[in-house]
Write a structure and sequence with these properties.
Largest sheet: 8 strands, antiparallel
Shape: globular
Low-confidence stretches: 49-55
Radius of gyration: 15 Å
Helix content: 10-25%
Structural class: alpha+beta
Distance between the termini: 24 Å
Number of helices: 3
Mean pLDDT: 87
Oligomer: single chain
Length: about 140
C-alpha cells in the first residue's frame, strides 16, 4: 500500500464518542478508501465517575503494523484489521449516516461521523494539513 494513495495514517486522534456518553477516546486511525479503523490508546469517561481503561502494547502493535503496510495489499490490510478490532472501532465509509471533514482551524476543523443508530462522534485530527489530505483522499471537496 502507498501512503496518501491507498491509506492515510493519523497517529494521534481525540474522539468525542457522543455527548450523552461523556467518553473521549485517544487513539490512532488508519484510513483506506472503504474503511477507517480506530486503534484506541485509552478512553476517559468525563461525566460522572472517571473511568479510565488503558490498552497496553498499542504502540508496539501499530509499529509492527506500520512496517508491514508497504508489502500489504489494501484487501489484505482491511481483512487483517477486521480480525484485530471490534465492530465499534471499524467504520465503513459508505454505511455512515454522516461523514464530514472540515479543514478549518480550532473548533472549525475536524471530522464528524455517525453510524446508523449511534451518536454523532467528533474526531479531532491534527494538524490541519492532515485533515486537508483526508478531505482530498475521500473526494470531499
Amino acid at each position: 500500500m502507498k501512503d496518501k494513495t491507498d491509506y492515510i495514517y493519523a497517529p494521534k486522534v481525540d474522539i468525542n464518542e457522543g455527548i450523552s456518553s461523556g467518553t473521549i477516546t485517544k487513539g490512532a486511525v488508519f484510513f483506506t478508501k472503504e474503511y477507517f479503523y480506530v486503534i484506541p490508546f485509552e478512553s476517559l469517561k468525563v461525566l460522572g465517575a472517571t473511568a479510565e481503561s488503558k490498552f497496553h502494547s498499542v504502540s508496539e502493535f501499530i509499529s509492527d503494523l506500520y512496517k508491514q503496510i508497504p508489502a500489504t495489499s489494501v484487501d489484505d490490510f482491511q481483512a487483517q484489521m477486521k480480525t484485530y478490532l471490534p465492530d465499534e472501532r471499524i467504520y465503513r465509509i459508505n454505511e455512515l449516516n454522516k461523514f464530514t471533514i472540515q479543514v478549518g482551524f480550532w473548533i472549525f476543523g475536524g471530522m464528524r461521523v455517525r453510524k446508523d443508530g449511534k451518536q454523532l462522534q467528533t474526531f479531532n485530527i491534527q494538524p490541519k494539513q492532515l485533515r486537508a489530505d483526508l478531505k482530498a483522499f475521500y473526494g470531499l471537496e
